[in-house]
Each structure stands twice: as structure tokens, then as C-alpha cells.
Specification:
Elements: E1 2-7, H1 15-28, E2 33-38, H2 40-43, H3 50-67, E3 75-78, H4 84-95, H5 98-102, H6 105-114, H7 120-134, E4 140-142, H8 148-165, E5 173-175, H9 209-217, H10 235-248, H11 252-259, H12 264-290, H13 293-322
Parallel strand pairs: 1-2, 2-3, 4-5
Helix pairs in contact: 3-12, 4-7, 4-13, 7-8, 9-12, 10-11, 10-12
The structure holds tryptophanyl-5'AMP.
Tryptophanyl-5'AMP binds next to strand 1, helix 1 and helix 7.
Length: 325
């Protein structure tokens, strides 16, 4: 199967990104034809630090490798270095009704936040994502819950394009993890964990052990006493149980049993300790990779060459069908 997915390089991968997306990538890489992208062109739709950006892209590549992606098996590359992504994005703009973009949840949330001063990039963002997916004949897109709607839109685009110009694109399916598709904010467990919220609301993969423990200790829970998984009534506790169970590789019921009779404080402390322990090898590997910048760049260069070959060929097909050659 052809797999494609990507994450924005914002220098702050959090455990939601890890449990929702990267953990699935690690399982899929062995048996499939995988492409994992650093989607820098998506990241520039909101303000970013151009002095730091190159470093953040390299950091992200180091993080992919540190998490366990094998560059001998998978393609890892930077979106802006393969020009067909923006080229196909434009084409998709011409066949997508505006109404479909206005109804995207992420667009609605962001435009509310920016009070109509948002860039057009925020509206057109799902089309660049669709271009990423469609250039590579992707069958499966492993992501968290918040991206599901964009993949549904991608399928709609495939249907429309193929019926207008002839069969060119493969219709992709999203793959969500059975647990962890929506890790919630620590400070407001009714909202998803997001890097655009305050630092205390998410755990970055690079937080120090002290920071991790402090954040989990301060996680918002409820006024009850029993540790029970119930996302609607106990969103904070359920979120901690989900994180714990995924990192410990245990079922939620098992964790509930282990925690029976313990206090919320104990659950928070044990979850903090487990996160610290599980992230330790990752942090160590990442530090090591960051001191080998030439190697990381080499991985990206190799990835770019392979991705560009595939993308060029697909774009050629698209243009031919459209009479653009
Ligand atoms: P991004 O960078 O916001 O998030 C990257 C991945 O992390 C998942 N994720 C979560 N999963 C569980 N709980 C959370 N709280 C949580 N927050 C984020 C996301 O679902 C995603 O899988 N537009 C995309 C990036 C993208 C892409 C693509 C993805 C661009 N092109 C092509 C797949 C295929 C985005 O902004 O994700």
C-alpha cells in the first residue's frame, strides 16, 4: 500500500502528534511503501520565525528519525523542495467550490481566531494537503481525528477531477488509531491538544523531565475521586488514562484496574513518570542526530529526489489530461 502523511515543522511536536500520527507511521513502515513529509508550506500560513525555520525543519527530520522511521525503508522529504505540490494545489483550486472550503472545521476555527484577517492560505490549506496526498497515488493516510474532514474533501476532489478530466487520481482513505486519535489539552480537556495553545496545555516531545512532570501534575481533571474512563463526564481523567495506556501498551481497562483506589494525584504523577521514561530514548537519539546535521540533510536530499521523480510523473499525467502540455 502507498502511505503518505505529514506534520508541520513548528519546532514543537507534541504527544498528540506522536500518539495520533507518528506511532501509526512506525507500524506501517515495515510492510508498506511510505512517504513522510515535513509540510513547511502549510506552516507558513500562520506567522513563523524565518530565522529559525530551517533549523525547525532539520529538527523535525531528526525527530522523525529519532522516533524510529527508517530512512532505508521510507521516503522523508521537505514539501517546499518538490515544486509539484504547489503546482497541483493551484489546479485543485480551479475545480473546488469555495463553499466546500468555507465549511471545513479547521478553517472555521482559525478564521474565528484571526477575526477575518487570516490569509487566503488558511482557506486553501486543505487543497495543498490534497495535492500532497494525490501526487503520490496515496491509498492510506495515517492521521489524527482532526484531519479526517480534509481527507474526505480529498476524496470529493478525486471524484470531481476524475469525472471531469479522466481517471488520474487514486481515492485515499484516512487511518486513525483506535485510541489516541484525539489527545486532549491538559489545561482544557474538552479541547484537543494543540501547539497553538499555551505551553501548559501540551507536552512537547522535547520538554525536560521537570517540565513534563509539572504539566501532568497541573492537568485539569474533575471534582470526583474515582479513576474511570468516561470521556464525556471525566474528560481530563480519560485523557490521562488514554495517554498512559498507549505509552504503557496496555488496555484502558487494565490501567483502570491498576489505578483502582489510587488518588487523581497518583495517576497524574505516574503518567508524568511514564511519559518521561518513554520519551527518554527518543530525546537521546534526537540530540545525537542533531549533532549530525550533514547526515540528516543527506536523508532529506535522498527523499526529495525520490519524491520528485514520482511527483513529476504524476503532474505530467495531470497536465496531459487537462490539455496543458
Ligand atoms: P498537524 O501538523 O497539525 O498535525 C500532525 C499530525 O498530528 C495529528 N494530531 C493529533 N492527533 C491526536 N491528538 C491530537 N491532539 C493531535 N493534534 C495533531 C494530526 O491529526 C496529524 O496527523 N494538515 C496537516 C498536515 C498535512 C498532512 C498532509 C497530513 C499536510 N499535508 C498530507 C496528511 C497528509 C496538519 O496540519 O497536521
Amino acid at each position: 500500500m502507498r502511505i503518505f502523511s505529514g506534520i508541520q515543522p513548528t519546532g514543537n511536536l507534541h504527544i498528540g502528534n506522536y500518539l495520533g500520527a507518528i506511532k501509526q507511521w512506525l507500524d506501517l513502515q515495515h510492510e508498506n511503501d511510505c512517504i513522510f513529509c515535513i509540510v513547511d508550506l502549510h506552516a507558513i500560513t500562520t506567522s513563523y520565525d524565518k530565522e529559525l525555520f530551517r533549523k525547525e525543519i532539520l529538527d523535525q527530520a531528526a525527530s522523525y528519525l529519532a522516533a524510529g522511521l527508517d530512512p532505508e525503508k521510507v521516503i522523508i522529504f521537505v514539501q517546499s523542495r518538490v515544486k509539484e505540490h504547489t503546482e497541483l494545489c493551484w489546479i485543485l483550486n480551479t475545480i473546488t467550490p469555495l463553499g466546500e472550503l468555507y465549511r471545513m472545521t479547521q478553517y472555521k476555527e482559525k478564521s474565528e481566531k484571526y477575526k477575518n484577517s487570516e490569509s487566503a492560505g488558511i482557506l486553501n490549506y486543505p487543497l495543498l494537503m490534497a495535492a500532497d496526498i494525490l501526487l503520490y497515488d496515496t491509498e492510506i493516510v495515517p492521521v489524527g481525528e482532526d484531519q479526517r474532514q480534509h481527507i474526505e474533501l480529498t476524496r470529493e476532489i478525486v471524484r470531481r477531477f476524475n469525472s471531469k478530466y479522466g481517471e488520474v487520481f487514486v481515492s485515499p482513505k484516512e487511518k486513525l488509531p483506535s485510541k489516541g486519535a484525539r489527545i486532549m489539552s491538559l489545561s482544557d480537556p474538552k479541547k484537543k491538544m494543540s501547539k497553538s495553545d499555551g505551553k501548559e496545555s501540551y507536552i512537547s516531545l522535547f520538554d525536560s523531565p521537570e517540565e513534563i512532570k509539572k504539566k501532568t501534575k497541573a492537568a485539569v481533571t474533575d471534582t470526583g475521586k474515582t479513576i474511570k474512563y468516561n470521556p464525556s463526564r471525566k474528560p481530563g481523567i480519560s485523557n490521562l488514562l488514554t495517554i498512559y495506556s498507549l505509552l504503557a501498551n496496555k488496555r484502558i481497562e487494565e490501567v483502570e484496574k491498576e489505578m483502582k483506589g489510587k488518588s487523581y494525584k497518583a495517576l497524574k504523577e505516574e503518567t508524568g513518570d511514564l511519559i518521561v521514561k518513554e520519551l527518554h530514548p527518543f530525546r537521546k537519539k534526537r540530540r545525537e542526530l542533531l549533532s549530525r546535521e550533514v547526515y540528516v540533510e543527506e536523508v532529506l536530499k535522498r527523499g526529495e529526489e525520490k519524491a520528485a521523480t514520482l511527483a513529476e510523473s504524476k503532474m505530467g499525467e495531470v497536465k496531459k489530461k487537462m490539455g496543458l502540455w
